[in-house]
User: Fold this.
Amino acid sequence: MNNSKPWILASDIDNTLTGDAQALRQLAARLAAKQARGMLFLILATGRRLEQVLNGFDAEGIPEPNAIISQVGTEIYLPPFAPDTAPLPEWDTLLREQFSRNRAVSFLSGIEGLEMQPAEYTTPLKASGYLDKTPSPEAAVSLIRNRILEAKQEDAYQAIWSSGRDLDIIPSAAGKGKAIRYLIQFLTLVSRRVVVAGDSGNDRTMFDEFEHGIVVANAQPELTRLGDETLQPGIYFAKQPYAAGVEEGLRNFGLLP
Ligand code: GLC
Ligand code: MG
Assistant:
């Protein structure tokens, strides 16, 4: 019997775990061994849809988690995982209270060059577009954020900007960080420490919400900027990219030997 409290690792998938298949294979095996001994509760926190996460277990060697947070922190799933598993209804209901998809789309309307993402990436709780063809993506992001502020809707709507391309409007109560916090409370998880890991803008809320985090070496500027903006000594900037960077960070925090 192992009485010590487990760690919680909440990791992004794309370009955090994925990107180097061999490094991911090694990390996944180490994480699975920890999970099997009750020493680790693994949460995948991703922009992907549930089905894309499940397909990745076999196709990409993505480790099998204890919980999945998908669609940029607007959906939470508990095992057993199947393509038709319903998202946690309590979280869904809470987020729908203050969010209308039509209103969310209205903050994106009329922006030159903005393209909406394909229908499968939009849900009642997430309106997403591509800004890489707009004349100035950064200016477009500012405009969208200002529209939300001018409408005094910042408590209900937030704009998440990632990788120089993706713009998501989701509930202010949502996002990866808040979804992880909700899940921990919902399951009354008691842990030794929560460590988060990511590479891009939609991971930012995890670092805002939790003290300890790993930024992989291949991270996007909006996340590496964290090093200049905050005096958060708990953030570890890995020297290695992708899964090797996550593993390096976990060693730094003492989760792996
Ligand atoms: C994933 C989602 C996409 C989102 C992006 C950034 O790629 O599929 O909808 O815009 O993550 O959050
Ligand atoms: Mg990513």
